[in-house]
Amino acid sequence: MIHPKARSRLRSALAATCALACLAGMGLPAPLAAQEGAAAVQDVTVTDVVLPLGGTLLRAPKLTASGTRLSKDELAAILKSDSSETWETRLARLDAGSLTIPVLTSEHAGPGDDRQTVTYRDVVARDVKSGRVRELTAAGATVSAVAGPNRGNGTYDEVRATDLDLAALSRLYTVPGDGKGPVQKVYGTIQVADVTYSDARGTTVKIARLNGRDLGGRQVPDGWNGAFAIVAAGFQPPHDRRTFAASAADLIEATALGSLDMQGLSVSNTDAQGPVLFEIGRATYGATGAESGTVLENMTLSRGSLRAHLGRLALTNVSLAPTIAALRSFAAEPETRPGFSDAEMRRLTPALGGLTLVDLSIDLPADSELPKPPPQDPRPAPRAAAPGKSVPAKPADAKVPETKSGDPLAVTIAPAPTRRVALREAALSFGPPQDGLPSASRLTLSGLSLPADLVAGAPIVGALPAYGYRNLDLDLVADAALDEKARDLSLREVTISGRDLGTIRITGTLGGFGPELFNGTLPATTMLMFTGSAKTLDLTIENAGLFERFLAAQSKDLSLKPEELRKEYVTASLLGVPVILGNTAAAKGIGAAMGQFVMKPGKLVLHAKSKEAAGIGFIDIGAARSPAALLDRLDVDAKAN
Fold it and tell me: Which residue, 625, 534, 630, is CA-closest to 587?
């Protein structure tokens, strides 16, 4: 569901842009004095212009049309609000060398108590022919929201648009259509510079420059004015989720944008726990061609000692088709229901082909910057006085002598170094979605580095600092596919490898993965315990130094030589593991393979397959009385090196 503040910003921005366009070519003069028609080129000035545009009221104290052959009567006929002629017909007669508006005010009310005013300076439309404007500019603007929860103010510098079609703009906003007609281009280009907006919550948004190209759309059943009003109202009567879904789908499907380029975005917040600053150097969007997709560059986040930087984030093959299809299905429901459930929100998720991250780094605060107990008084406790004697008290204002620069006794406390988590590259790709969930996905992380103490306390990897690791350098691959008909989740590859550590690779097939796991009625983990099963599992372990460090650490703790401890582990593998696992043939094979791996740590491979086509249920695995009970239901093969 669209957040009310986001809806307000979107509608206000479109209304403000429309305000510039419409008053540049449609100024409603009141009063207008009659004047005889003139064939010669002339300048025509009107005052006190007022133009209602949906929920927006436009005001211009003065408007001048230069280089026009229109008389005031003819201009009045074009701009007459209750004319029987369509705006498109009247705008076809609008011609002028330029239209100038020194001050243009756009007043917008809603949703709720929100009241926003945008005042533009020095608005000029050049080369106006048949309702089309070659260039539209404004020297700047101020924005003020004086009521409602989104109170704030801001400014724009220069605003510029080219190839503006006023007739197309009027049709889109006021004339209903079926949403299936051709795209009508409203702007060739639009540019806005140095945008700043601050709200009452202490949040400030700045944009150095914003460029858009080929903006337009299709006519929708309620007109864009009506559709925006319905979406802004949300689920409030007389509208419900069906009308909301229909209008939202209409607007998403009808909007056309060729490209967008935003530079120098920053969002700062004066939070009570410390100021927050988020910045994006550049964000671009392209609908088609080599530049298609969304790219964010040079992103930074800072809060106190926390610093994060991302060199590049790219989204490719993004499609809103699933979102539109879900909204259409909600709009066609025979009866309405309140809001959207979690499962329905998943259906609204757009399809995403891929996501790529490059050059991510996070500088974490040092331990010394974490909250500490209050400092203790370093002075020793006063000595007890001998009988009949007193101990002179130290003056309360006595101070420790200050050390001077160069004093060999001076102690310099260097700031503790920050701890950095870094990632060279990450890639995430998705298959076609099914009910909002991707049918396949692949995640690749390359060059993930972090201090080893960050994983202290975690299962298995939490012991790495004790084995001498100070920093970890890891690569990760996770590739999975969901077969909805077979209800199988295929783990095509899950691999974790680390420098001076080794590699673990897992593949397998899990059964019982159906849509009921994600319908929100029960937690997925609870449902999975009853529906899930294990069908196959392949495990490969390759040593690259971890086993030797483990052996050295254990030898030191047990006061044994490494080779002595190795022999004990070999014996435990050959004799102890089979006993623990039930002393079956499969258990002996696993023990023998483990013994070979301990003797010469290289590669250990384990393959297990359920003898039952449906697999072994997770609930059966959890309730098994012994490992032998499970091994009897598996075909197992193990080997080393």
Answer: 630
